[in-house]
Amino acid sequence: MERSEKREFVESLATIFAETSFVLVARNAGLTVADVSELRRKMRAAGASYKVAKNRLATRALEGTRFQGISPLLKGPTALAWSTDPVAVAKTAVEFAKTNDKFVVLGGALGTQTLSADGVKALAELPSLETLRAQLVGLIQTPATRIAGVLQAPGGQVARVLAAYAKKDAA
């Protein structure tokens, strides 16, 4: 890589770090091209990006950003993954790490909060943004459903009582 290419790469990474909410750092030593292609495909499907970057260039791109705390993790063969939905990236990476021993999640950063590998695994166990939205809508709709049921119940009870009296009189 020439100096100008390196400068452009650092600038593009810095722009990405300014726009994203979560960055994951993983060790990718020994992954085959097929494994990396499969991981990138899964990341893309989750709305995330995955890039193998030189540690020195990634460290320069991290300087002055809110993700500066992950710089110590950039040792050895590492890769970065990022997205605006932190749960999607964490889930994809943790699931891939379970099936491939050569891919190890080292940690990450959610805003200014630096996460260890256990923190990323805990983040992966959270429901996705779509699921949380659906649960929130369900919580909002539940009281309305209960109110409708309560309002309908007395009418139904009166009808059942009248039906019981009608059957009693008919007998």
Structure description:
The model has no long low-confidence stretch (mean pLDDT 84). The chain starts with a helix and ends with a helix. Strands 2-3-1-4-5 form a 5-stranded antiparallel beta sheet. Helices cover 60% and strands 16% of the residues. Strand 4 and strand 5 form a beta hairpin.
Task: Annotate the secondary structure layout.
Layout: H1 3-19, E1 22-27, H2 33-45, E2 49-52, H3 55-62, E3 78-83, H4 86-99, E4 104-110, E5 113-116, H5 117-124, H6 129-170
Could you give a quick summary of the protein structure above?
By secondary structure, this protein is of the alpha+beta class. Helices cover 60% and strands 16% of the residues.
Per DSSP E runs of 2 or more residues, the count of β-strands stands at: 5
**Helix/strand-derived class?**
alpha+beta
User: What's the tally of helices?
Assistant: 6
Mean pLDDT, nearest integer?
84
What is the CA-based Rg, rounded?
A: 26 Å
Largest sheet: 5 strands, antiparallel
* Share in β-strands: 15-25%
Task: Report helical residue fraction.
Answer: 55-70%
Structural shape: elongated
Give the CA-CA distance, first to last residue: 97 Å
Strand order of the largest sheet: 2-3-1-4-5
Low-confidence stretches: none
Q: What is the string of SSEs from the N terminus onward?
A: HEHEHEHEEHH
